[in-house]
Amino acid sequence: MSSIIELPKKDKQGMGLLSYSQIDLFKRNKGEYYQRYVLGSPFVQNIYTEFGNKVGGALESGDFSKFSEKEQGVLKQVVRLDEFEKKVTLQYSEYGFSVVGYIDTSSSDYLRIIDYKTGGTGKHAQYESSEYKQLVYYALGLRHQYGVTPKVAQVQFIERWGNPKRGDELRVGLTKPLLIDIDISMNSLKKVYWETIEIAKEISEFYQQHKPKDNSLLPTLE
Fold first, then answer.
1. pLDDT per position as a tens digit, 86-140
2. How many CA atoms, within 13 angstroms, populate the side-chain half-sphere of residue 90?
3. How far apart are CA 56 and CA 106, in angstroms?
4. Alpha carbon distances (Å) from 29 to 34, 37, 71, 124, 184
């Protein structure tokens, strides 16, 4: 018999909320996870996340005017599908939580989904790893909400040039954007679906051990 899993982040109805970024941070850095999700410290953008948002916003709007002519030439090679920032929710109702995400761009029939990433030279390798599962969650969410399982899931990697530590301004690298195929086979979907329940239990146990006794310190409900 399943039971409700208590998580630090909740929606207005009190249901627990997870995201790929939250799960990834918990695996990578529990100290930072504690600050962000248990104590509710706000996320502070840095020059790299700001650049990624700038690129993502341009791709969503189709307005590349904030970039040089050469950078625009690269951005125009990036695949833009029918919809942008599509919210998807994978519900684990029997456990009292859901996993929420936003697909950068998707076809109108949801058979193809793409996530945009920017990074330094060689950083595309992390998205070729079997540990990268963000689009698996998106595929599961679409399957849950619409009964449609995408046939193609890809990361479009846009190389980033410039080193702010040397005083360089970040800019779009003048290399062809890469399309990286992500495994969303049924075996992959099933594996991630069941793994998420175990991860949610780990997060819940961590939360129970470390949550403040003063409820005023807990994250604000969304």
1. 999 999 999 999 999 999 999 999 999 999 999 999 999 999 999 999 999 999 9
2. 25
3. 14
4. 9, 12, 34, 21, 26
Contact in structure between 98 and 92 (CB atoms under 8 Å):
yes
In sequence order, the β-bridge partners of residue 153 are 113
DSSP state of 176: P
pLDDT digits (tens, 9 = 90+) for 60-79: 999 999 999 999 999 999 99
Place of tokens 């996320």: 43
Q: Encoding tokens for residue 22?
A: 């939250």
Domains defined along the chain, listed by start: 16-217 (3.90.320.10)
The DSSP string of 2-33 is: --PPP-S-B-TTS-EEE-HHHHHHHHH-HHHH
Alpha-carbon gap, residue 7 to 98, rounded angstroms: 10
The token pair that represents 52 in the structure block: 């990624």
Q: How far is CA 38 from the centre of its chain?
A: 19
Spell out the long-range contacts of 67-70 with Cβ–Cβ below 8 A and sequence spacing 24 or more.
67/171, 67/172, 68/171, 70/174
Q: CA quadruple 58, 60, 63, 69: dihedral positive or negative?
A: positive
* pLDDT of 25 strictly over 80: yes
- Both tokens assigned to 61: 């709007």
Dihedral angle sign, alpha carbons of residues 66, 135, 26, 162 = negative
Q: What is the pTM of this model?
A: 0.91
Question: Helix (H, G, I), strand (E, B), or coil: what is residue 44?
Answer: coil
